[in-house]
From TrEMBL:
This is DNA ligase. It comes from Candidatus Mancarchaeum acidiphilum. PANTHER family: DNA LIGASE 1 (PTHR45674:SF4), DNA LIGASE 1/3 FAMILY MEMBER (PTHR45674). Keywords: ATP-binding, Cell cycle, Cell division, DNA damage, DNA recombination, DNA repair, DNA replication, Ligase, Magnesium, Metal-binding, Nucleotide-binding. Its cofactor is Mg(2+). Belongs to the ATP-dependent DNA ligase family. The keyword Nuclease does not apply. Pfam families: DNA_ligase_A_C (PF04679), DNA_ligase_A_M (PF01068), DNA_ligase_A_N (PF04675). Its EC number is 6.5.1.1. The gene is lig.
Amino acid sequence: MLFKTLSDYYEKLSKTQSRIEMVNILSEMFKQAAKGEISKLIYMTQGQLAPNFIGIEFGVADKIMEEAIMIATGYNKEEVESEYHKQGDLGEATENLIKSSKLARMSSKKYDVSDVYGSMYKIATISGKGSKEIKIRMLAELIAASDPIEAKYIVKYPLNSLRLGVGDETILEALSLMSTSERSNKSILDRSYNICSDLGEIGEIVLEGGIEAAKNMKVSLFKPIRPALAERLPTASEILNKMGGKCAVEQKYDGFRCQVHKDGNKVKLYSRRLEETTSMMPDIVKAVQDSIKAEKVIFEGEALAYNESTEEFLPFQETIQRKRKYGINEKIKELPLHLMAFDIMYLEGEDLLNKPYETRRELLEKAITGSDVISPSTRIITDSPKEFEEFFENSVENGLEGIVAKDLRSHYIAGARKFSWIKMKRSYRGELSDTLDLVIIGYYRGKGSRAELQFGGLLCAVYNKKRDMFETITKLGTGFTEDQMRKLQELLTKIKVDSKPARVDSLIEPDFWVYPKYVVTVKADEITESPMHTCGRSMQPDGTEAGYALRFPRLVGEEAIRADKSPEDATDTSEVIEMFSQQKKVSLSNK
Ligand code: ATP
């Protein structure tokens, strides 16, 4: 496919306000792709070069791009910067500069998608002396051979500013439509995605062998599995009821989720977002290499800082200090990590996802014996609400967050939040005090005392995975420090968009729309029904429509933004509905 064709599709994508239309455009685009090309198209459309777990970054800063634009267009620094200032985006600036340039284009070479991808890959991976100059030259060559629209996307792609609004679910639905003319076969692809986390690979498999080939995909080493997630319930009896009267109850540790892949001496670790975190935890890597007997294994647990003298786990605020690129070796001594393992998904060539929890637990315990640093999560198996409650109270007294109950019969349900795992935290008692992770979709101009900061608050949404849409749940105006407001204002101005993005469902119009990118953690007193918000909106018995909203929402946490969560990791609409019904039960039982 010519890069020109791809940029025309990108123009269509960025102009549509309908998600259905977006899927149609993508599916049509994928149909044009050749073998070996569709994976590149998918990564490019997501603004990446490879799946997240490979972790390749472009390493192209605005300054490098500006120099490339100057060489390719003949404009000087002031002209490029002034247009950038006007447009707020270098890609749009380049499009305008080329359109109004009187210079003849330097080259008429027609690049195809693989050429552009190949150059970008080289640009991202080249390092060492002189690499900056090579990057500038390669970018300039691409821009010089492009028409204004192509140039816009050449510039936007490595600067992470494509903002096409395409999410993982959107791509899976488009692949289903491409391959079977049906959107609904996406559910087959969901499973494949949950076990390989690589949309490009799925694209290639579907293109070559159709949807049937995707059905046969198996778990493999060094392709992280999308994590199983937990539902929430507030009492031991409700959890036991839901799980058929008996279940395992494990301590819930508050650290970093860590998926370990081991093949002989080769070990890699992945986070909850499936980014590689191997270099952050050399102590865990060494413990796996030294003490895990299994040759080929994938297992997971929670890594958290541990005080060896008092044998106590440290709070998350301490563990988070290990999240650093430099000075790791000093921090290892100060804050050694302990890995509390809670599941195993693959062992010596066998995919264990469809084995029941109890079988997996036995295999896990055998596989990890003999290490001081890695141990199985502490747990009980019980059918007694009293024993369950005591275990919970005991865990909380020991400084832990609560418990995660596990259905003894259940498979490992990758990439989904299901009742086979149910969490219970101390905070669930009484009022709604569990936090919600919300996506910022818009913001307001500052008025009165906030006028100087130009920041008046946020419009926030939950993610509805079933609809693949962001649905509004609250405006958020309190809980910010001045620093946080400044930071948010700075970050949000950069992702402003002219109109409501296609995957946003909102009845409210904020002063500025932003591209759904950042997640904030919010606490509220209550979930209420509201005609204003689209979260879980449905028809009421009186014929009106209502959704859910938050009462007295406020921002929590020192960092304004949750860097470890992507928009699709935000609280899901179904969780809000569940929390609302729990809250109703609690308030009834308190009457
Ligand atoms: P939270 O903020 O409550 O940790 P989350 O959205 O990150 O929520 P959930 O699936 O809702 O994830 O809750 C389970 C999380 O708890 C897992 O992601 C994992 O990191 C952590 N965890 C700690 N101990 C356990 C355990 N024994 N079993 C499963 N998960 C555990």
